[in-house]
Amino acid sequence: MLKNQDLQAVLEEINEEVQPLLSEGTVADYIPELAKVKQDKFGIHLLTLDDRSYSVGDCDERFSIQSISKVFMLAMAVGECRQNVYDRVNVEPSGDPFNSLVQLEYEQGIPRNPFINAGALVITDILLSNFPNARNEFIQYVNSLAGLKSINYNNAVAASEKKCGFKNAAMVNLMKSFGNIDNSVEDVLDLYFDFCSVEMSCQELAKAFRVFANHGKGLVDTRRYLTESQYKRIAAIMQTCGFYDEAGEFAFKVGLPGKSGVGGGIAAILPNEYSVVVWSPGLNEKGNSLAGMKALELFTTKTQTSIF
Predict the structure, then answer these.
(1) Which residue in 201, 200, 202 sits closest to 44, CA to CA?
(2) What is the pLDDT of residues 51-72, one digit of tens each?
(3) Which residue of 7, 171, 290, 301 is most buried, as measured by CB atoms within 10 A?
(4) CA-CA-CA-CA dihedral for 92, 306, 235, 96, to nearest 10
(5) Quick one: residue 79, left, alpha or beta (phi over 0 = left, psi -120 to 50 = alpha)?
(6) Of 244, 245, 124, 132, nearest in space to 175 by CA
(7) How far apart are CA 92 and CA 168, in angstroms?
(8) In percent, how much of the chain has pLDDT > 70?
(9) Rounded to 5 degrees, what are φ and ψ at 291?
(10) pLDDT tens for residues 163-191?
(11) Computed from CA positions of residues 273, 80, 83, 65, in that sequence, does the dihedral angle turn out positive or negative?
């Protein structure tokens, strides 16, 4: 689909078109460390399955990937526990904000999907129970997906989240009351905040997400975790649940499976074609990158690529 297009020119056009949006939106200031990030940052990196890459802007600067890490968490958990993961976390869109507690009470501590906070906290509990040193093994896993050794946690961001993570603490306690958390509340929260604090660049995230675009083919170090069918299912959850209560809007305007984070990043894939990552810290009212959403809408429109 993309071979006859000047993709660098497309990205440069998009960069120009979204510049007015960089002063809009709100940086995630409820996490004090994230509030320090300059709002006018913007970068895109596109990586095709045949190893062509295209970039504009701040694509090499690392940022806090936040909830994008939930994709890696789910992949690692499914690789270890297989179908059993979905006995404790459903795969339906929530229709509620990412940090909502409302559905947990009605649905007896079973989160709607792995990409809202409650679901990711259960996945964290699963990883704690199944890996001797889940913190170290997770960061090694992320590095292996990206083909690197330098990706790491940001301890200051993790500590900052812990200081204001009252809703997350409430979720873990509520789910534990329903028997859906096995480990201690403190251990689950500490590890979850570490997972969210991982720092990567657009380029590094695009390399890691290409695994999902390619169903894991040819990736010797990571094939032990997932089958092609499991990659497909994770991509399906990204499509329906990757953007909280704005998942329908992203599918409608962009048409790619993906995942956002309140650090301003969005990672998306077109299966069998490419991975693309955009970063812009200014968020809309749903917690998704304002300029990032527009940039990806422009990209799939200009290149006429989507899953639909």
Answers:
(1) 202
(2) 999 999 999 999 999 999 999 9
(3) 171
(4) -30
(5) alpha
(6) 124
(7) 20
(8) 95
(9) -70, -30
(10) 989 999 999 999 999 999 999 999 999 99
(11) negative
Amino acid at 210: R
CA angle 288, 292, 293 (to 5 degrees): 70
Q: Are 158 and 89 in contact (CB under 8 A)?
A: no
For 40, the token pair is: 């006018």
Tokens 């270890």 belong to residue? 80
Region for 57 from its dihedrals, namely left if φ exceeds 0, alpha if ψ lies in -120 to 50, beta otherwise: left
CA distances from 254 to 109, 116, 127, 248, 299 (A): 32, 20, 32, 10, 8
Tokens of residue 35, six digits: 């509030």
Instruction: Decide: helix, strand or coil at residue 199.
Output: strand
d(CA 64, CA 210): 19
Res 99: pLDDT: 62
Q: How far is CA 99 from the centre of its chain?
A: 15
Instruction: Evaluate whether 282 touches 21 at the Cβ level (below 8 Å).
Output: yes
Given a cut of 50, is residue 130 above it in pLDDT? yes
Length of the chain: 308
Number of H helices, E strands in the chain: 12, 7
Quote the CA–CA distance of 166 and 29 in Å, as a whole number: 15
- Across the strands, what pairs with 267? 259, 277
Angle between the N-to-C axes of helices 185-196 and 69-81, in degrees from 0 to 180, rounded to the nearest 10: 120
Q: What is the mean pLDDT of the chain?
A: 93
Structure tokens, 27: 């940086």
pLDDT tens column, 198-257:
999 999 999 999 999 998 775 545 445 688 889 999 999 999 999 988 999 999 999 999
Which residues neighbour 22 within 8 Å (Cβ) at sequence distance 6 or greater?
Answer: 39, 40, 41, 42, 280, 282, 291
Task: Give me the phi and psi of 104, to 5 degrees please.
Answer: -60, -35
